[in-house]
Amino acid sequence: MLINISAIKDQHGASVRGSLQETLDLELPGGADLTGPVSISAEVTHAGETFHVQGKVSGNFQAECDRCLTGFKAPFHSEFQGEFVRTHAGRNSSRTDFDSEKDLPSAEDDLYQFQGDVIDLAELVSEAILLAMPMKYLCRTDCQGLCPSCGMPKGAESCGCEVEEINPNFEALRKLLGREEV
Ligand SMILES: [Zn+2]
Ligand SMILES: [Zn+2]
Description:
By secondary structure, the protein is mostly beta strands. About 10% of the residues lie in helices and about 35% in strands.
């Protein structure tokens, strides 16, 4: 996941683009896994003190549904950006090309360091993928979970149960009206 910036390193304002497919060994939350290589496209712009990187990553993951426990696959898309500062090999790695602290971009920016002419997108891309993962893994947004009668996912062909859902409000009303049928 490397982008070579040697073509633009002396040209303020110039950019270089790259796109690639990469198989990542990335641990996703909740036991989910990437199901194949991810597609990454990125643009690096020589922004003076830093190299500005922005790009997109997409791919597919597999997970177990939090409600019905069925395994499913789903796509994800995410975007990333960050500022890269060139550091010099052999020096303290916290030292940069900046003359003084005040020249450093604000700490609010995501700041990454690189050496030589190659920027490694691995960290940015990994963070972007983790941010794209849902809070809850659901096989579909209206997944109704497991059937209390047969234990199969509700609505699945394997569950043929007729589950009568009784709304407690209607039940109270029905008693009040003294009728069996509403
Ligand atoms: Zn489900
Ligand atoms: Zn059932």
